[in-house]
Every structure is written in C-alpha cells, then in structure tokens.
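Design a sequence for this backbone.
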C-alpha cells in the first residue's frame, strides 16, 4: 500500500509511544472517544500508522511557553507516521490538512516540528513540478560552467518606472545574467507593472540584439487574485520577458497551482514569511519539507539565503536548504535552482563552494555587493565572478585578488563588515 511518510519531532512530558499513537489516530480516523463506524476494517484501510520512533536527548524545560512539570523532564523523539495514499489522494490541500494541520494543536505536546516528508511516486507524478528548473535557467541565460550572477533593483521601493529602466541598463551593461524586482515590488501606483515592463524590456532586448545574450529579468507579478496575477504574467510574456518573482507564501498553494498551469515564465520563488514557520527550532517545518510542496507546484528557482547572511538564519540551515533544492524527488529535472543571496558580495564564494558539495549550479545574488562596489556595478559583477573563479580553482581570495583589482576592491570594502 502506497503511503506518505511524515516525520514529526515531538516533545512531551508524557509517554512518547502513546503520544505518537495519539497523533496517528487524531490525524486520521480517530477522535477523542470511540465512535460507531470506526470499525477494524475502516482502520485497516484508512488509519495512519506509527512506523518508527527514534529517541532524542530530553529537555529539562518545555519548548513551548507553559508551566513546567515539577522535577520532570520532557521526552523527545523523531516519529514516523505513514498516511495511506488512499486517504490523502494526490491533493496538496488534503496532505496539508490531514498530515500537517492538526498536529500543532494536540494537547500534551510541548514541542512539535515536521522534519521529514517522503512522498510516493504516485503523488509526485500528479503535480507538474518545475517547467524550467536548473537546466532551463541555464538555457535561457546561456550561462554554463559557472554560477549565474544576479542582482536586485535597488532601492527596493520608490523608484519610478523610468528609474527602474535606468538601473536595469546599468546592471545589464555591468554584465549580470539575472535581475529581479524586490519581492515587495508588485504593482504600485508610482511604478505600475505595465510601465516597468515598457521601461525594462527594450533595454533587455536591445542588449540581446547587440550581444546575443538575454539577461533574465524577474518581474514582480504577484497578486492574491489569480486572474490579476495572470494578467500581469501576460504583460511580461507578451513583451518578451521570461521570468517572474513570486512571494509564494503570499499567493498560496492555489495561486501557484493556477499560475504554473498557464505560465510561460521562469518562476522565481521568494519565501517571505517563511521565518514564521521555521524560526523556532521546536515548532513549524524544516525547509526540506516545505520546499517539496513548492517544487511540486512548479517553482523553478528558490531563494535560500547564503553563507554569512544578513538575516538570522545560520550557515548550516542555508546549507541544508541548498542541498534540499538539489535533491531530486524523482529525477534531476524536478530540482529547483538554489538562489544564494542576503548580504553576498563574493567573499563567501569559497566557503559556499566548499560546503555545498562543490556545486556551481546556483544563482548568486549580489545587491549591495554589486551596486555598492567602489568601482561601480560593472566592477561589482566582475569581482563576484573572480571570487567564484578563485573558489573553483582552490586559490585563496587574497592571492587571486593580487591580479584582479575588482576583487581586491571588494575585499577592502566588504571583507570586514560585509554588506546588508
């Protein structure tokens, strides 16, 4: 029987085994008392089952704010629970409701986090997955043998459409492979999407005609109304654009499913709001679980922060996220391109390369690291490329910088304080 296996990291002052059985029952056929109709046959077909328990070190205090048990400890374990595919079907809304939704309200838990998800092939094949992914992102930009180098329109908000076009020209001439609107930029009155497209796309297409290289620009097209989002999509696609940035938590699973079925654009996922779901170590989701859902729905590129990020996320969390995106669900075509960003200026390239398994399959985003380079944006792009050349070659940055002045300038400007 095909099952979806969910791994919960639970904490309780009670018995782990009984709590695991309670979760399996509550999240499938059971309720707080036996009811007529909950027959052995029904349970055999539809009940979730505990398939594994691995004990962890206990805690002396509860993870969630609550009264501590006097003199007690809090047992912890990773618990595998199998949900029959016959019950969940292949619908993501059903998976989220049955296997994920109710567990956080179970009485007696002082901590619960979903840390693993193993879906059967039947479930995975029912969803479209990325239309472009890693291979498509490389094909559209023509970049092979190195990371894609990208930047973000700065300032994030407030620029007119004409200003956005001017910054785009500066970045295109600097040699970037990818440019994106900030995730907060959608369709503001001072710079409507249609006006931005009219200002940006002639710059992109003119550069392509002159050089044969088409810089990928991801426009902010998101809306809570799927029809509005599709109108925005069509404005970009009909003007010759090939990418869009989507704040995935804001548009939701249904919005992404609606968009992916109709999209002609590379879908660049920004996970704004993700921290609410993961920042507490004993509550929420691991990224390895979260990203599977969005890849099934069709995300092509996935922002995952980076080494030495300007935000709270530790390096190990970034690395786990990177490897999650790079792990096939069924085959390599369903992988999303990891987007490395947040305070990146190139100096983190050697450690990123060393700790990500020696992969160059990534989009490396430099905002302030490019726009704030002492020699200008062109020098900022060259400095990041030089950093990656040094990383892949195994040459220390300081050594490589002796013959690469742009990198030397970056080290002098950002090497101690980084960028924000």
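Sequence:
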């Amino acid at each position: 029987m095909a099952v979806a296996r969910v791994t919960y990291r639970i904490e309780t002052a009670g018995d782990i085994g009984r709590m695991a059985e309670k979760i399996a029952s509550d999240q499938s056929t059971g309720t707080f008392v036996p009811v007529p109709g909950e027959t052995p046959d029904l349970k055999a077909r539809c009940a979730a089952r505990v398939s594994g328990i691995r004990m962890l070190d206990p805690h002396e205090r509860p993870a969630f704010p609550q009264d501590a048990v006097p003199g007690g400890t809090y047992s912890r374990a990773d618990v595998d629970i199998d949900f029959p595919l016959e019950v969940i079907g292949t619908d993501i809304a059903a998976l989220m409701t049955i296997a994920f939704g109710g567990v956080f309200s179970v009485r007696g838990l002082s901590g619960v986090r979903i840390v693993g998800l193993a879906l059967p092939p039947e479930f995975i094949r029912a969803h479209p997955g990325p239309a472009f992914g890693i291979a498509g992102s490389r094909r559209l930009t023509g970049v092979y043998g190195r990371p894609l180098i990208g930047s973000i329109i700065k300032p994030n908000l407030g620029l007119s459409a004409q200003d956005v076009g001017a910054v785009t020209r500066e970045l295109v001439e600097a040699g970037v492979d990818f440019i994106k609107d900030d995730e907060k930029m959608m369709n503001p009155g001072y710079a409507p999407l249609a006006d931005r497209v009219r200002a940006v796309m002639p710059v992109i297409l003119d550069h392509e005609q002159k050089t044969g290289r088409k810089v990928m620009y991801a426009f902010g097209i998101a809306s809570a109304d799927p029809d509005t989002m599709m109108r925005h999509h069509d404005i970009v696609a009909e003007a010759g654009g090939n990418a869009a940035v989507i704040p995935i938590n804001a548009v939701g699973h249904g919005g992404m499913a609606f968009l992916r079925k109709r999209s002609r654009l590379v879908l660049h996922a920004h996970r704004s709001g993700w921290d609410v779901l993961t920042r507490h170590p004993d509550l929420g989701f691991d990224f390895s679980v979260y990203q599977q859902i969005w890849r099934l729905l069709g995300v092509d590129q996935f922002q995952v922060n980076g080494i030495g990020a300007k935000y709270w996320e530790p390096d190990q969390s970034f690395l786990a996220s990177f490897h999650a995106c790079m792990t096939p669900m069924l085959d390599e075509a369903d992988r999303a391109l990891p987007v490395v960003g947040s305070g990146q200026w190139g100096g983190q390239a050697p450690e990123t390369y060393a700790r990500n398994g020696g992969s160059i399959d990534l989009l490396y985003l430099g905002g302030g690291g490019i726009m704030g380079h002492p020699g200008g944006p062109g020098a900022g792009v060259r400095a990041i490329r030089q950093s990656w050349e040094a990383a892949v070659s195994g040459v220390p940055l300081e050594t490589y910088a002796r013959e690469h002045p742009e990198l030397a300038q970056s080290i002098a400007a950002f090497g101690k304080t980084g960028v924000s």
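The domain at 133-414 is CATH 3.20.20.110 (TIM Barrel).
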